[in-house]
Amino acid sequence: MKILPFLVLWLWCSHSLAAPALWSATKAGQQLWLFGSIHLADQRLSSLPPALLHSLQQSEQLFLEVDPGTISPATLAPFLSMPPGDSWHSRLGAPLADELEQAIDDMALSPLKPLPPWFAVLQLTQARAQRLGFASARGVDMQMMELARQQHIPVLGLESPGLVFGLLASLPERQLEADFVRHTLDELDDLQQHLDQLLATWQAGDEQALLSLLRTEQSPPLNRFIEQDLLLSRNRLWLEHLKNQAPQKALLVVGALHLYGEHGLIRLLERDGYTLNKIEDTPLY
User: Fold this and answer.
1) Given a cut of 70, is residue 1 above it in pLDDT?
2) Taking the domains of the chain in order of start, what are their residue ranges?
3) Which residue has the higher pLDDT, 191 or 90?
4) Phi, psi (degrees; rounded to nearest 5) at 277
5) 167: which of 8, 37, 47, 51 is 20 to 30 A away, CA to CA?
């Protein structure tokens, strides 16, 4: 099974889509480039910004959130087991469990039923996106990884797969799993409209509106989990990784929500003494 990262921006190119910003971060001879990724895309994402491609050519390493080569069944197994006697009904309550099971049946995804609800609903979302023509293989991350390998540039992960999966697997003990499943199923009911809203915000280049959209769509407890655990804590770990292990020249391609806001990577790098500049580029078509 392919893995769908939780904070995924389902964005695709319209006929005249402005290129996302590439950022330059420099400090004491170190040059980093940062690019906000589209994790899923369709065939309309047929080209990448020239400045992004040029930054890869100059880089000694490409950093992704997670190196896909480190994701394996053995790696994920500890997070995907259901304790004996556990069930979706006991974890979600009968109405929500029945709704999830029906959605799974509608997509002919019955092999997901023995797995934790949070994982099943993520795989359901990926399957729905694929029916709409979107695939992770067409996303910026995978395109850049393939280009890096063709150019013999090492590809590394800023974290292990176990980090984010451990966070997601903690949803039940945080009493957030039902909220997470409910919210995700509600999004599936009108996925196209939701994608349009995200796309319009992204096209406008309105970073604050994108962050506001994230904050207003979940319950406060789930919102805190997303902002504090899935974004802020990981951003801080990535910053330390970059300071201590990144080479003199490196490119980072991560989900766009990791870049912006008070605790985004751009602001964290600035606070750490890096000089940040936005690199202008031509639109994508």
Assistant:
1) no
2) 22-279
3) 90
4) -140, 140
5) 37
**Whose CA is closest to 283, among 64, 42, 40, 45?**
45
Considering the entire predicted model, what is its pTM? 0.85
Cα–Cα dist 157/195, whole Å:
27
**Parallel, antiparallel, or unpaired: how do β-strands 22-27 and 30-37 relate?**
antiparallel
Across the beta sheet with 30-37, the strand order is 155-159, 61-66, 249-255, 30-37, 22-27, 275-279
